[in-house]
What does this fold into?
Amino acid sequence: MSLILGRRFDNQPLVVPWAPSPHGLVGGNTGSGKSGVTNAYMGATAARADTAICGIDLKLVEQWPWRDRMTVCATSTAEADRLLADLRALIGYRSRLLQAKGLRNWSPSLGPWVLFVVDELAELTSFDPDALINAVNTGETNGVIRDGRNAAQIRIALLGSLARLSRFCGITILAATQYPSYEVIDQQIRTQLTIRIMLRVASGEQIDVCLGRGYGKRIGVRSIPANQPGGLWIAGLPSDPEPVRGRAHYLSDDYISAQADRTAHLAWPYDTVFGPALEQHHQALTATEQTQ
Ligand SMILES: Nc1ncnc2c1ncn2[C@@H]1O[C@H](COP(=O)(O)OP(=O)(O)OP(=O)(O)O)[C@@H](O)[C@H]1O
Ligand SMILES: [Mg+2]
It folds into this structure.
C-alpha cells in the first residue's frame, strides 16, 4: 500500500510506502514547504479508516486544522511529554501482543496504523515557556535551566526509543525540522528515519544530513530554487536507489478544513488506541510495587 504525496519530475506520482511504512525525516529551511509535506502525509492518511493520526505541534497552527481527525494533537510541552510516554507504552503493549500471537509485524486486524507527526524536532529540546515565565515572575530561577535540559533529554530518549521500536508495531514517525544538522538530529533517531525528504536547505552539510553523506557535493543547494516551495528531493524509497526530484502537492487551508470535516468520523478515539496499553502499563507497575 502507498500514499501519493505529489509528483516526481519524471512525471510519475510521488509515492511513499504506507501500512507498513518506514519512518520519515522532512528537512528544509523556514518557508521551504515542510508543513506542506506533513499536510500531504496527513491528507493522504486522513481518508483511511485504518489509520490513527497523532502529532506534536507546539506552534499551534500547523496541525491544528486537522485536530478533529486526530487522536491527539499535542500543543504544549506537557501534552507532548504525555503523548511520547503514551506512545512508548503503546509499543510495549503492541510488542507483547505480537509476541503472544507469534507475529513479527503489525496487522491492521490488531488495531490502527498510527501516523505520529512532529512538526519541528528542535521544539522537543526547547524549554517549556510556561516554566520560564513562571521562573521570571516568581524569581525562582534556580534549577529552571537544569530541569528544562532534563525534560528535553527525556523527550529525546523517548523519541529515540520510539524510533527504534515502533515500526514493527504499526507506528510511523514523520519528523520535520528546519535545522537538519548532525547536532539537532540525534544520531540514534536519524538512522531510523529512512524516508528522507529534503526541501530547500542552505548548506551542503544539511543536504548530507537529509539525503546521506556525499550528496551535498553532488546535488548542491541551488537544485531547489527559492521560488519553488514544496520542491524536494526524496531518498530512501524502496523503488529508487538514488534520490528523486519532485514536488509535494499543496493542500490549501480551505481544503484541509473541509477534508478534516469530511474525515472526522474516522478519527480513532484516544481510549481505543491507548486505553489497553495504559491499563497494562499500570498493572505492570502495580505488580512491580507489590513484589518490592
Ligand atoms: N507544495 C507546494 N506547492 C506550492 N506552494 C507551496 C507548497 N508547499 C508550500 N507552499 C507555499 O509555501 C509556504 C510555506 O510553506 P510551509 O508553511 O509548508 O513551509 P515550512 O517549511 O513549514 O515553514 P516554517 O519553517 O515556517 O514552518 C506556504 O504557505 C505555501 O504558500
Ligand atoms: Mg512549518
Summary: The chain has one domain: 2-284. The beta strands are 2-8, 13-17, 24-27, 51-56, 72-74, 113-118, 171-177, 195-198, 231-235, 244-248. The chain is about 40% helix and 20% strand.
